[in-house]
């Protein structure tokens, strides 16, 4: 069934009896050409592009829980391509372009909203760094706008630019950045992949790999063995635990990141805004809640819940730029497991085991990467070659020392 305005009106007038399930619930087959482990955004996007761009139909996505239950449904929904380094910026700009056409591609309303993102500047040194970043963005075909405090006040009149604890000296804006309804991304990719014959199998945990003579022949699962021509791991925060079953130790640590949503308010925040003197970012959802977050909890964990000191730290950051936040009630908060790589950048690569591929290390920036990650991973799986926009995301950069260290923090996963 194709979704359209006409269809919505027809169903509204006929008691909504014509809607069917958005995807099937198939039993796992004994063998597929491609088995993708993990039904998060990246796994589902990979399946969609494998089927739609590379014409592959014998594809399965194995998800241990339910699709959308991982980080794809837990993030703060921000999309942007405001990166500095050559290894990153073209990739994230490709992603932003794919977001711009996503709803037409998937025939699904993912509520892509290019409401803009503004990074606030609080010091002269920060301005220099942001000017450099803006120039790098424009060199790679992205949009960047260095905004004065006067321009910022026209859009965000409640900001106190002069008399705040950290006075605001300007901002770097990307007007094409914004937000996307996160779980709709999982559902949209799942539905589109299913329509092209991809089997999406929920409640199917991969418990091991069958590897013989250095070749991966398939995966052991909670629902039996599933054979595969190629196995593509794509499990974000569970990367270390999954790949350990193939005998691999990854340059990745797992940490918790928390998110917060307030009660619904009238429209107050027109775009995404980030604080430059601490770690705090915020947007307003279409339901009216302020959606915000900050730093990771900073210790290794596989728990999907966070700790109180970070709640205090994030709220302090918020209060420093929006004192009005102190009067709003918090409705919900939750945590997700982040796959923090040593340089803060991801890995999309073949492993040393024939037929076994890996995608992970997205840290807390993987949601915006979902379309490009899916496209690049599908390209690698189908052609055996890295996608031209993802050539830097190889395992061997940790051996050669060619880190893609966007934050300049060194090999400190807890600081990226
Ligand atoms: C609080 C928070 C805020 C964030 N904010 C942003 C943001 O604003 N912008 C941004 O770009 N990024 C953000 N991120 C990061 C982003 O959400 C992740 O990088 C991205 O979603 C990870 O990719 P994914 O969607 O494929 O992961 P997931 O949705 O976690 O998918 C992985 C899937 O693998 C499954 N799995 C694990 N082990 C197995 C197994 N053995 N067998 C089968 N399946 C398995 C899991 O159940 C899960 O569904 C945020 C993350 C969090 C937690």
TrEMBL record:
Q: Which GO terms describe its cellular component?
A: cytoplasm
GO BP of this protein: tetrahydrofolate metabolic process
Instruction: Give the organism the record lists.
Output: Gymnodinialimonas phycosphaerae
* Domain of life from the UniProt record: Bacteria
PANTHER family per the UniProt record, alphabetical: FAD-DEPENDENT OXIDOREDUCTASE DOMAIN-CONTAINING PROTEIN 1, SARCOSINE DEHYDROGENASE-RELATED
Q: Which InterPro entries match?
A: FAD-dep_OxRdtase (IPR006076), FAD/NAD-bd_sf (IPR036188), SoxB (IPR006278)
Report the main location listed first in the record.
cytoplasm
Pfam families the record matches: DAO (PF01266)
Name listed for the protein in its UniProt record: Sarcosine oxidase subunit beta family protein
């Amino acid at each position: 069934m194709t979704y359209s305005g006409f269809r919505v009106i027809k169903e509204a007038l006929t008691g909504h009896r014509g809607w069917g399930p958005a995807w099937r619930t198939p039993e796992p087959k004994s063998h597929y050409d491609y088995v993708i482990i993990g039904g998060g955004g990246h796994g589902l996007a990979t399946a969609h592009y494998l089927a739609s761009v590379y014409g592959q139909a014998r594809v399965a996505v194995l998800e241990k829980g339910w699709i959308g239950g991982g980080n794809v449904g837990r993030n703060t929904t921000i999309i942007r391509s405001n990166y500095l380094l050559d290894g990153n910026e073209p990739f994230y700009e490709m992603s932003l372009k794919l977001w711009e056409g996503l709803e037409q591609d998937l025939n699904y309303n993912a509520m892509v909203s290019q409401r803009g993102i503004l990074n606030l500047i609080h010091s002269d040194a920060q301005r220099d760094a942001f000017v450099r970043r803006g120039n790098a963005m424009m060199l790679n075909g992205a949009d960047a706008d260095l905004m004065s405090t006067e321009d910022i006040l026209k859009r965000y009149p409640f900001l106190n630019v002069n008399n705040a604890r950290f006075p605001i000296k300007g901002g770097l804006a990307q007007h094409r950045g914004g937000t996307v309804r996160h779980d709709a991304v999982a559902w949209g990719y799942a539905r589109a992949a299913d329509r092209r014959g991809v089997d999406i199998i929920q409640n199917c945990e991969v418990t091991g790999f069958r590897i013989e003579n250095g070749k991966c022949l398939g995966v052991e699962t909670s629902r039996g063995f599933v054979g595969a021509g190629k196995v593509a791991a794509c499990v974000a925060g569970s990367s270390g635990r999954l790949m350990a079953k193939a005998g691999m130790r990854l340059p990745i640590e797992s940490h918790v990141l928390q998110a917060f949503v307030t009660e619904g308010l009238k429209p107050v925040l027109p775009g995404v805004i980030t604080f430059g003197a601490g770690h705090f970012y915020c947007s307003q959802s279409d339901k009216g809640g302020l959606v915000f977050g900050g730093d990771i909890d900073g210790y290794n964990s596989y728990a999907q819940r966070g700790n109180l000191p970070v709640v205090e730290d994030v709220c302090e950051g918020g209060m420093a730029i929006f004192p009005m936040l102190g009067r709003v009630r918090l409705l919900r908060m939750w945590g997700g497991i982040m796959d923090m790589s040593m340089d803060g950048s991801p890995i999309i690569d073949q492993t040393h085991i024939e037929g076994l591929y890996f995608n992970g290390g997205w840290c807390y920036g993987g949601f915006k990467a979902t379309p490009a990650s899916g496209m690049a991973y599908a390209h690698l799986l189908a052609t055996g070659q890295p996608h031209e926009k993802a050539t830097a995301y190889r395992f061997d950069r940790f051996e050669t020392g060619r880190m893609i260290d966007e934050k300049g923090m060194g090999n400190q996963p807890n600081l990226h």
